[in-house]
Structures are given as structure tokens and as C-alpha cells.
Amino acid sequence: EPTPSRRRLALGPARQRSRVYAAPKEDDGDDSNLVAALSIAAAGAFGAGIYATMGAEKALEFSAGYVVEQSLSVDNLLVFLVLFEYFKVPPGPMQDKALAYGLYGAVVCRAVFVGLGAVALAEFRGVLLVFAGILLATSAKILLGGDEDDDEDPSKNAIVRWVNSQSLVPATDAFDAEDPSRFFTIDSQGIRRATPLLAAVACLELSDVVFAVDSVPAVFGVSEDPFIVYTSNMFAILGLRAWYGVLARAAQELEYLETAVAVVLGFVGLKLG
Q: 62 and 47 in contact (C-beta within 8 Å)?
């Protein structure tokens, strides 16, 4: 049984992703690049504000945390691509809606993880070693896992299987005929069923929980200030929507993304240890 990589835990196959995806047809490349640049500028402006009010050390911690989290967040975007293809969510308003809900959930999820991490750190300094262990273990799994998971079918992933099991609500494979962007539709028997759009959003939210397990400890490796950890996470996460169009077009070129993520996690893990 191959050891799962960071993305496999959240969803799955790098090779399948690069084989299937192209840039969303409705996405304007110039607009995506501009918005992505503006998101970086906004983070830089916030960092300058921290420098002016909290000093150079905190500003450096914010910048480092932002860079670490932004690097790891690229993986999230590629999971989004896989999910949208699997659930057949077309580019445009429907993907925009799913991304918006996914990012709103990520804001709440990261707040919870940062809060728990801050409390644990205040009560027990040794939790840093736990964080280091998580990061080093994840890095090792990615580097040593090989290519065995490249052909994994997304339908076999635990998160996707659970969402598709209809254990929570009845679901259908069809979008609503009148408004495809609805999360629920009424079938021919008058039963209210969840559409694939809701299933995609649910998988986005659950996947982010998996990503947060190593993303948040990684930023705690840069700063122990909950404000710095959370704000650097937020600027990176809220910039994901801007980066989605850019990464969607570049997905086929990101051959060494998993290795790069492993190096970042391993470096921070060693620093914590």
C-alpha cells in the first residue's frame, strides 16, 4: 500500500491532473495576472503596515509566513482543478461560486486551527516538536511515496467517496435545470437532492481541513504570534481566487510541485525541530 502524499490525502493524481486540464475558457489571462499581482501588492502593503506599527521583526515574520503559505496553497488550487473536472463543474459563474464558498470555509477553518495551535503552544512548548514531526512526516511521505499514486481514481478517494455516499443528504448527478448554480434541485419524484456543485464545495471544504494540518504548523514554524500566523494565512488564502486562473493555465507545467512542497515542509520542520 503506497504512502499517501499531501495532495493524495486531499484528492489525488498529479499526472491525471496535468493530462486533463486546460485553462478555463472564460478566464481572461491578463485579468488573472493583474488580480494575482494586486493580491501580492495587498499583502505587501499589509506587511508595510506591520513594519510601521509592530517593527521590522514582525514584518519579516509576516512576509516569511505569507511566502510559505502561498507556496503550499498552490497545491490547493490543483486540487480545485481535479474536483471541478471530476464533478463536471463548468468554468465561469459556477466555478466562481464554488471557489467563493470554499474560500469562506477556509477562512473559518484556518481561524480554528490557528486558535487551537496558539492555545496548545501557550500551554505546552513541546507542541512545536509535534508540529515539526507533522511537517517532516508529510515531507517524507511526498518524497518517498514515488509515482504509485499517479493513477489513482478520484472516485476512490476517501473524501469523495464519503461525499458521494449520500449519507448526509440525497444527491443527484444532474445540475438544476432552471439554475445550474443552485446547490439543490427537485427531481422528478419531488425529492430535494444536492447537486454536484454542492458535492464539489463539500470536497473543497474537507480538503482544506487536510491541508490545514500541515499548512498552519508550517507558519507557526516562522512565527509564534497568532496574529501573524492568521493574517499571513488569510492573505495567502484570499489570494487563491486570483491565482486560480493563472495556475489553471500553468497546471501542465508544474511537474515538480510535489517535490517543492516537500522541500518547504521539510525545511520548516527541521527549523522547528
A: yes
User: Is residue 235 a contact partner of residue 132, using CB atoms and an 8 Å limit?
Assistant: no
Per-residue pLDDT of the chain (273 residues; tens, 9 = 90+): 333 444 444 444 333 333 334 444 444 555 667 877 888 899 999 999 999 999 999 999 999 989 888 877 776 777 788 888 888 888 888 888 888 888 888 888 888 989 888 888 777 767 667 767 777 777 777 677 654 444 455 666 666 776 666 667 788 888 888 888 888 888 878 888 888 888 888 888 888 787 777 778 888 888 889 999 999 988 988 877 777 766 666 655 556 656 666 676 666 666 555
Answer whether 225's CB lies under 8 Å from 50's CB: no
Task: Give residue 267's identity as a one-letter amino acid code.
Answer: F
Q: Are 71 and 261 in contact (CB under 8 A)?
A: yes
Map residue 117 onto helix, strand or coil.
Answer: helix
Helix (H, G, I), strand (E, B) or coil at 194: strand
Under 8 Å between Cβ of 102 and 201:
yes
Strand ranges in the chain using DSSP code E only, listed in sequence order: 184-186, 192-194
Which residue carries 443528504 as its cell? 169
* AA identity, residue 84: F
At 232, list the grid cell.
499571513
Determine whether 55 is exposed, middle or buried from the number of CB atoms within 10 Å of its CB (0-12, 13-18, 19+): exposed
CA torsion, ordered 108, 111, 113, 114, to nearest 10 deg: 170
Rounded Cα distance between 22 and 178, Å, is 28
Provide the β-strand partners of residue 171: 194
